[in-house]
Amino acid sequence: MREVIRFAWGNSSLGEFMVATSDKGLVALELGSSRGSAEEALRIRFPDAQVVSGQLELVDILDKITRVIEEPRFVPELPLDMRGTAYEIEVWSMLRLLPIGETISYGTLAAKLGTRDARDVTKAIASNPLAVLVPCHRVIKKDGSISGYRWGVKRKRELLARERRAKPLPTSEGAG
DNA sequence: GAATTGTCACCAG
DNA sequence: CTGGTGACAATTC
């Protein structure tokens, strides 16, 4: 019996996104890719699985994802089926501990993980299949500038901007 | 901002 | 082990 991967499309202020789930939980959340290539990516990632459209079954999930994108503080209780090397999973777990509005550099994150090379973390983060749910957008370069983002630097900036607003600030940020 | 160079842990074979 | 690789980091103009 082949494993079944279901995918569906949703819409948000950041554009269209695709969600894919296995029996265990979410395996992918893609932002703004074209429908064709995103679906193909799934088949490549799960060559032995049956990739089917599950638009109806995933309505609930789509709804939650949309909300996460619009409201950074909303935490969906969605099961994540993380697939990757042990190291990648470690990095992803680490990212999810980052509070809203908080950013960290690749180098610092690497240090926390016990490795010494930021590039190492970079690779793991770049392999993150779960946009937003794993807040890889909170990882930036050491000088504070935005470096790169698998789903587009603009989305990264946008997500960070939203989180800054959502973050409870003791003082107002003043004119900006 | 763009280009250049140094660096090394991780992954696949 | 060997080889390839990077969403880095620090420097320079």
How does this model look, in words?
By secondary structure, the protein is α/β, with parallel strands linked by helices. It is about 35% helix and about 15% strand. The protein is built from six helices and six strands; from the N terminus they run E-E-E-H-E-H-H-E-H-H-E-H. The strands form two sheets. The protein has a four-stranded mixed beta sheet with strand order 3-2-1-4. A two-stranded parallel ribbon has the order 5-6. Helix 3 crosses helix 5 (about 120-125) and helix 4 packs across helix 5. The structure holds a DNA duplex (13 and 13 nucleotides).
Q: What topology emerges from the helices and strands here?
A:
Blueprint: E1 4-12, E2 15-21, E3 26-31, H1 35-45, E4 50-53, H2 59-70, H3 86-95, E5 104-105, H4 106-113, H5 118-126, E6 139-140, H6 153-166
This protein binds a DNA duplex (13 and 13 nucleotides) through residues 85, 87, 105-107, 110, 115-126, 136, 139-143, 146-150, 153, 156.
